[in-house]
Amino acid sequence: MFPTATTSPFSPPGLTSRPPQGKTPPLRPPHRADLPLWLALLLKKQRRANIVPPPWLHPASLADIVHRETKVHPHAFSEPMPTASRARQSQPGYAGRIGGGDSSEVILSPPFRNNCTSAAPAGYLPYHWLEVAEALITHASDDLGGNTSEIRGLLRDLVEVRAAKMRDSAETLGAEGQGGVVSLRGVGAMELAENRGFVLGVVDGVRKIGGAVETARREKEEEMDLGGGDGGRGGYGGDGDSDDDMGI
Amino acid sequence: MQTWDVKLVGSGLRREPRWKLRLLSVTIPSLPHLKLPQFRLYELLSGPPAGTSVADLTEAHCPSRMFRVLSKPKIQGPVEVGLAVGVSFILCIGSPHYRVVIMSYYDIDSILTDAEKIPCTFQLDIPDLGYLDNTPNQPLKAGTKVNLPLWLAEMLVIANTGGPDNKTFVTFDLPRALGNDVVQALKADPRAVPLRDQSAHFYGLATHMMDLSEEQELGSVLRKTFVTRAAEISLHARKVGGVSTKGKGKEEGSNLGIGGAGEEFLRGLDEWERKLFRKAHDGAKSGKEWMDSIKKN
């Protein structure tokens, strides 16, 4: 007889083919255990476990994020979960990352950060939000509290509003005087993958169009460099000479 | 072989009295800001000294008034800059006759762009070329307007005749695709102009023309046009993905309603924009495929 464990996903879905480090905790029926997403889904399909949905997937949390994306910051992606930090006792008023001094303890790359696991809090989208949400809706819809369609609707709103922002980023990239910089903070893995080709294409196009102007600017700079060099050499002859060179 | 995207504009066809070679840019597409350490380009103000070839010239000659350093990078010995993809020219320097060989280039879009016609005005009487203006057996008069393909116009505009007044062979006007009314229309609404009707290689043509002329305004208008249309392209790319899987079931990607007006816009895309559309579409499509794969497993 297999135990029916109440599990929650703990693993970036990108690693689903291989178990992550560490042992699988003992699975005893009424207790919760953190499992990799692939294992949780497997057990779920075999009807041996229920999955506790991550807090950010709750409709209230998603609605909050949609509100932030559309009303509060209509031009920026919603922020990822802030890095865990703690007030420093020695310096009142300052805070440092947990595990601050020893950089080996701080994990900053997205798939392994806390906000990408089952520990992700409500109100922030984890790096793999779209993938996890899609997997859970597809395979564990009965664990989501019966409001799958609401969650699905909210997710589609999010996808659309963020895709629109990604499109607008193209215009920001080409806007003059902004240095062609666009912040991708808080963008999920799926969105990055989908838009990579397009955004790079836009950047390349803008580079080619600006090429002539850029070349002219560089030539001017180089001439000024050369002019300066000649002036320096001409300086031996006297000030008048170098002024002539600069005059060209 | 290392491959670089090299854009060369030169009048190396003439050796006397001025041998001139101008390299406009050496860029590596993957590393656009890298300056190549192993190149230096000179503009020769006169022929190299007897008994030496261009390949033999070194920095030792530099202080002389003979040539001028054009770029920081350096050429050592015979140099071949070869290109594979997205490439403009192959340049070889170092044959005994100071020959610059501008060999073929493999980018089909670049070739097609070079065939675009540019309105040019000849500045000199040219014997035996009257047939270009439908007056065979007569010289081509100075001041005649002839449409020349871009590759030829480019040569003739940059090369000068070597005469006392240093005239160029031809002067050129902007082609109709980049004319004032098109630019004004683009300023008003970039999305409303079917660029393909102007030229299938609109941006390629435009960047070439900007290299040749000092038009500042055109650059910023084009830039605005490109990014505005890019956003629109991305929108359509997602939508088309939804339509193509329509038969299969419920999830049809974007639910943004764009009517049949979209098709007209897509028909007006030039080659650069078509590539961009393809990229955006591929991204959305593979995203959708991944989503579908989750449902199956």
Automatic annotation (TrEMBL), chain A:
Gly residues bias: start-end ranges: 226-239
Highest rank taxon of the organism: Eukaryota
One Pfam family hit: Sld5
Chief localisation class: nucleus
GO cellular component, one term: GINS complex
Name assigned to this protein: DNA replication complex GINS protein PSF2
Keyword annotations: Chromosome partition, DNA replication, Nucleus
Subcellular location per the Swiss-Prot or TrEMBL entry: Nucleus
Keyword Signal: no
All residue ranges annotated as the DNA replication complex GINS protein PSF2 N-terminal domain in the record: 21-52
The protein's role, per its UniProt record: The GINS complex plays an essential role in the initiation of DNA replication. Has a role in chromosome segregation.
Similarity-based family: Belongs to the GINS2/PSF2 family.
CDD domains, per the entry: GINS_A_psf2
Subunit structure and binding partners: Component of the GINS complex.
Positions of the UniProt region annotated as Disordered: 1-30, 76-100, 214-248
Listed GO biological process terms: chromosome segregation; DNA replication; double-strand break repair via break-induced replication
SUPFAM superfamilies: GINS helical bundle-like, PriA/YqbF domain
Species name: Podospora anserina (strain S / ATCC MYA-4624 / DSM 980 / FGSC 10383)
PANTHER family: DNA REPLICATION COMPLEX GINS PROTEIN PSF2 (PTHR12772:SF0)
Boundaries of every GINS subunit domain copy: 124-209
UniProtKB/TrEMBL annotation, chain B:
One Pfam family recorded for the sequence: Sld5
Gene Ontology terms describing biological process: mitotic DNA replication initiation
DNA replication complex GINS protein PSF3 N-terminal domain residues: 106-158
InterPro entries per UniProt: GINS_A, GINS_bundle-like_dom_sf, GINS_Psf3, GINS_Psf3_sf, PSF3_N
Any Gene Ontology CC annotation: GINS complex
Protein location: Nucleus
Ranges of residues in domain GINS subunit: 180-291
Record's keyword annotation contains Magnesium: no
Entry keyword annotation includes Nucleus: yes
Keywords: DNA replication, Nucleus
Family label: Belongs to the GINS3/PSF3 family.
Function: The GINS complex plays an essential role in the initiation of DNA replication.
Subunit and interaction comment: Component of the GINS complex.
Entry protein name: DNA replication complex GINS protein PSF3
Organism per entry: Podospora anserina (strain S / ATCC MYA-4624 / DSM 980 / FGSC 10383)
